[in-house]
Specification:
Blueprint lengths: L7 E3 L4 E3 L2 H4 L13 H9 L2 H7 L16 H13 L3 H5 L6 H5 L10 E5 L5 H9 L4 E6 L2 H13 L5 E5 L13 E7 L8 H11 E12 L14 H18 L10 H11 L3 E8 L2 E10 L2
Parallel strand pairs: 3-4, 3-6, 4-5, 6-7
Antiparallel strand pairs: 1-2, 7-9, 8-9
The structure holds S-adenosylmethionine.
Protein name: Sterol 24-C-methyltransferase-like isoform X1
InterPro entries: Methyltranfer_dom, SAM-binding_MTase, SAM-dependent_MTases_sf
Organism: Branchiostoma floridae
Length: 295
């Protein structure tokens, strides 16, 4: 840590010192907290040879989610850090009218139907469902392990307004058409095998005037426009070792997490969403929030 110029070392006293400006990246809600990244590197290192095999002419197309042991738990811990004290008080208010529609506890008239698409362990659902008991939350993921974890956690919290289910986003149930007021896809579109198909299904299942929040990585589609982004090497690395291979494994698009805001907006337009806004996510610099609407 000293030779990497992260920790200062006093040669005479043989003491170590972490200067305040470097502490910020290790603190919760510092906006640019990277304290969770070393564990992510360990997870990605575990699949490095599987990814390398994909480059062989006769190698596999990609790497299955099941090869990333511990990824869902790691993601959920990071989401807890990012979202507790942030989601309800800072993120939700960036969406006009949403907090009122989700409803306050005493206002029994309020409450809406929400879908957390590609939920993993469903941290936003667990947080929102506790704060907004008049709304109902359906959270879905292809992977049964995180869905079971989230359902058990919801029971432990005594929530009665959540449903967690294993579900492929590319073919949502036929009777979900026009049924959700709000859909949230947090970091769940770029590594889809068929992101266009998923966006079409999200559109179909939203009510007219319903809102869609796609939270995804901050980046530009054109490589040259990411050169000044200090996080870009880490993001492209994570994309190579996780986001692209999990999509390619299903013969998918392999967009990667650096698909960029320009392509993201054009795909939302293609799926017929309107009023598309590209917003910052309060206190989470790594993400962008694509807020849009079904007409
Ligand atoms: C990067 S994780 C994000 C999870 C969670 N939203 C979060 O922010 O922690 C992407 C999730 O999408 C899920 N997923 C991928 N393809 C899917 C599909 N076709 N249908 C449903 N879920 C899918 C994966 O299983 C994974 O849990």
């Amino acid at each position: 840590m000293v030779t990497a110029r992260i920790v200062e070392y006093d040669r005479r006293q043989r003491t170590y010192f972490l200067p305040p400006h470097r502490r910020a990246v290790l603190q919760l809600h510092a906006g640019k907290n990277v304290a969770h990244m070393p564990e992510f590197l360990r997870l990605l290192a575990g699949v490095a040879t599987d990814v390398a095999d994909c480059f062989k002419l006769d190698g596999p197309e990609g790497v299955p989610y099941s090869a990333y042991h511990g990824l869902q738990a790691w993601l959920a811990n990071m989401r807890k850090q990012e979202m507790e004290n942030n989601l309800v008080d800072y993120f939700v208010p960036t969406i006009p009218g949403l907090k009122e529609r989700l409803g306050e506890k005493h206002n029994l008239e309020s409450g809406i139907r929400v879908h957390d698409a590609g939920c993993g362990r469903g941290i936003p659902t667990l947080i929102l469902a506790q704060h907004f008991p008049n709304s109902t939350f359906v959270a879905t993921d292809l992977d049964s392990e995180p869905v079971q974890w989230a359902a058990a956690e919801s029971n432990r919290l005594g929530l009665v307004n959540t449903t967690f289910q294993v579900q492929d986003l590319v073919k949502l149930p036929a009777d979900w058409s026009d049924s959700f007021d709000y859909v949230l896809a947090w970091d769940a579109i770029h590594d889809q095998a068929d992101p266009e198909g998923v966006l079409r299904e999200i559109y179909r299942t939203l009510k007219p005037k319903g809102l869609f929040s796609m939270v995804d990585m901050r980046g530009h589609t054109e490589l040259a426009e990411n050169l000044d982004n200090p996080a870009a090497p880490m993001l492209y690395g994570a994309s190579l070792l996780h986001c692209m291979p999990v999509s390619l494994y299903f013969g998918g698009r392999g967009l990667g997490n650096m698909w960029g805001q320009e392509l993201a907006v054009s795909m939302l337009q293609e799926a017929r969403f309107t009023n598309i806004l590209v917003l910052d996510v309060p206190n989470i610099h790594a993400n962008l929030h694509f807020l849009c609407q079904k007409p």
